[in-house]
């Protein structure tokens, strides 16, 4: 074993006001794409992360621009938190050539390598080894980059999870595995799918640290991720973080929510909404006034409505674009 | 020119590529001190260290996935999959990830990885260690598929594969590892997508892939004694496929046999045959196309059964007789 003891410096303290704005951006982005979908203006599918904004902002939002994220099908929050251009994300959702992926990716594959977003994945668990590979690149090239790999609770039952964590551990790769345990893998509750209380306990099998936190507490998330990132940056290897959270909406647009009670949803939405929790704290501590927050929310809605209006007149891909980018041209 | 084995040619290409480019590294099961499942990486860890020649756990999905992640972020991984049959365990990373990323991200990411693997039968290793599944990969847009049949091609094509900016599947054949060929001692590349006429002839073309190329050449020698002049075309790369060289040969000979070691059903021979059938040359053929391939069975372990599961020189000679006997309409 080549584990090093690493003296982690003080965790990065997140700016709560800026974080709240980011969390609202994520929620409003998703509310607007849902409206577009319901109005028949948006083609395809989407997996909303409403209710999980704290894990997005407390995780990807505290990384350096040069750090990387690897995301999942429930990716909009991660992408926005890592700094992916929101206009380009709207454009991608609406199938425009100006989209992040020029219309070839859609909701599930939004990527922006310029801001460290290595992309989102339609295959559950596929990101674990890819993140290890990017971390290996950083280690071999001697950069200080760290990879934050998002995955859902269901993904921890994929073989790729176990293979990648073991490999990341033996090579002490600078990667943080971040499980957003939103309680359900599509319709299956995690309680029915695993026989352990904490998914983070699985870290023990691979000789890495495992931590379970309240994923709807922005400060707890950012502090834990920040510590794990700095540990990884300083050669301390990977960490497995499990953040307990909840998706307010269904798995995807086809979900009729037959598998969970209205009472359960209401409990999470009314008592454990990460945005309401942060707002209450900021207002209680006199950091921000309720009116200022509502003004901010209104401003974001207006800004995004303008973005959508302008994206609508962007051009769509040409038929010729169908056949481009199948292969990269040229040699090394 | 000096003669070295197919295996040595691969080892030499890896050695040269590691020396040429800092971004190149090798990873796979037992590739270090052990030298790889078949010896292709022998001595390289000693020379380049454990960082650049990395032993991995038995985790094919992780080996492939790590290669994808590293390739996307500036490295040029060359992974070894000990037996090509194990591709089944790494399939998501190769098919859904490596092959798709460049397109899904509209060209903003590249995945320059090489997957080297030992394929084919003839060692008595039975159904899970003897398959020729290259046709699977040839069906996936985004992957390039290479199948060298001799030492010279193996070295030049492996160099090209490592320099290529795409995911490349590099199928080596276990029985070819010990075959000798003339190979330059300097690095060189053979363009991916260029078929090779391994022997020129007038009466008949055999399009043969991988291990079948040598068998086709042997059959051609025997046929020559009977006065039949056989041309042997080796596509060398299944994707991209050099249809021009194949069709030019058939236009000249007007008779064709297509032979692969992989099972005939839904195999790559069907692809080549269809390309011929769809071309205007099909109107000029003097005999129906004959297709030879493996029997539609999992590979048996017993020697005689195994030999009968794939085309042999005798079956090729029977096919030659059949094609030559067809009367011109």
Automatic annotation (TrEMBL), chain A:
Any one GO BP annotation for this protein: pyruvate decarboxylation to acetyl-CoA
Pfam family, one: E1_dh
GO MF term (any one): pyruvate dehydrogenase (acetyl-transferring) activity
Cofactor(s) the record lists: thiamine diphosphate
Residue ranges constituting the Dehydrogenase E1 component domain according to the UniProt record: 22-319
Keywords: Oxidoreductase, Thiamine pyrophosphate
Superkingdom assignment: Bacteria
Protein name: Acetoin:2,6-dichlorophenolindophenol oxidoreductase subunit alpha
Species of the source: Candidatus Enterococcus palustris
Automatic annotation (TrEMBL), chain B:
Domain Transketolase-like pyrimidine-binding: 4-179
Keywords tagged on the record: Oxidoreductase, Thiamine pyrophosphate
Entry-linked InterPro entries: THDP-binding, Transketo_C/PFOR_II, Transketolase-like_Pyr-bd, Transketolase_C
The keyword Ubl conjugation appears for this protein: no
Pfam families tied to this protein: Transket_pyr, Transketolase_C
GO MF: oxidoreductase activity
Cofactor names: thiamine diphosphate
SUPFAM superfamilies the record matches: Thiamin diphosphate-binding fold (THDP-binding) (SSF52518), TK C-terminal domain-like (SSF52922)
Domain of life: Bacteria
PANTHER family found in the cross-reference section: PYRUVATE DEHYDROGENASE E1 COMPONENT BETA SUBUNIT, PYRUVATE DEHYDROGENASE E1 COMPONENT SUBUNIT BETA
Protein name: Acetoin:2,6-dichlorophenolindophenol oxidoreductase subunit beta
Species assigned in the record: Candidatus Enterococcus palustris
